[in-house]
Design goal:
The chain is of the alpha/beta class. The chain is built from ten helices and ten strands. The strands form two sheets. The chain has a seven-stranded mixed beta sheet. A three-stranded antiparallel beta sheet has the order 4-5-8. A hairpin with a 5-residue loop joins strand 6 and strand 7. Helix 7 packs across helix 8.
């Protein structure tokens, strides 16, 4: 049975969310996203929820989660409590996976990254998904059921992949994404998730993936407007497909520009680009950050 994914509580006003992953310290790119969420919430007369996206149990650290709460408070941003932490909700994601599996839309994949690279290499071509990762060649899709059972019974580690063609055949007809600009004017654009191939919805280590958790949580939290970086624009096609498959409400999306460093490279926590706490230690104030990023109009506490 699909868990009830209707929003918790009545949806009486626009709901936005800022959803960082605590796998490093927040940098200026996060500050931009958090402040833009605050600005659009104000324009829409809505509220921004904070969500801690910590499903990556190998890379996320409680200390980074603590630090991000501190950094956001320093920036002058306050959020309703309690804050949702994805690692508290693995049972919910597992139930959604079960439902998709019951409908024949998932299959276990036992391939390691090296095996995928080798299989793709043997084909003599290297098709990639929009994030630049090798497109899964479908090795495990056609495994005989007895072989699947044997490997599962042996406890072989596996991911769960979406049967993209079957899922699209069911519901990608006329798939669109609602978009809105900074003045909250709405439009709609066509999206096609097929370029992602059979995406992983259940990881080896936890019963979800980013795509599944973000889609389920946006629905459960009644999110009406998703404001996030342009690096997630292409992935929205997957989220739209999952919303259709699961019968979930469709938020409106705004993908903002990415803040780049002096060399024009996207800031990433992995290279520790300008953590906010480092700026703070250098004597830069939250007001300076807000002004530099173009949010001089947002008062602290807005
Ligand atoms: N947790 C993601 C990140 O830190 C953002 C996900 C989203 O906004 O949909 O990049």
């Amino acid at each position: 049975m699909l868990p009830d994914l209707a929003p918790i509580g009545p949806v009486s006003r626009p709901i936005l969310r800022f959803a960082p992953s605590p796998n490093g310290y927040l940098h200026l790119g996060h500050a931009y996203s958090a402040l833009l969420n605050a600005r659009l919430a104000r324009r829409l007369g809505g509220v921004v929820l904070l969500r801690i996206e910590d499903i990556d149990i190998g890379r996320c650290r409680p200390a980074y989660a603590e630090a991000l709460l501190e950094d956001l408070a320093w920036l002058g941003l306050a959020y309703p409590q309690p804050v949702r932490r994805q690692s508290d909700h693995f049972a919910t994601y597992a139930a959604v996976l079960d439902e998709l599996r019951r409908r024949g839309l998932l299959y276990p994949c036992f391939c390691s990254r090296a095996e995928i690279a080798a299989a793709v290499g043997r084909r003599g071509e290297t098709p990639r998904d929009p994030d630049g990762a090798l497109l899964y060649p479908g090795t495990c899709r056609a495994l005989a059921p007895a072989e699947v059972e044997r490997r599962l019974a042996a406890g072989t580690l596996h991911t769960l992949r979406l049967r993209m063609d079957e899922a699209c055949a069911l519901c990608s007809e006329g798939l669109t994404m609602r978009v809105c600009d900074c003045d909250c004017r709405e439009g709609s654009v066509a999206v096609d998730p097929r370029c992602w191939g059979d995406v992983v919805l259940g990881r080896r280590d936890v019963p979800t993936s980013y795509h599944l958790a973000v889609t389920v949580d946006d629905a459960l939290q009644g999110v009406t407007h998703v404001v996030r970086g342009a690096d997630l624009l292409a992935a929205t096609a997957i989220h739209r497909l999952l919303q259709r498959l699961l019968g979930l409400a469709e938020p409106c999306y705004h993908h903002h520009r990415l803040i780049t460093d002096d060399d024009g490279r996207k800031l990433a926590k992995s290279v520790e680009s300008l953590p906010l706490r480092q700026l703070r230690a250098r004597g830069i104030t939250a007001g300076d950050v807000r002004r530099d990023l173009g949010f001089g109009d947002l008062e602290a506490g807005a």
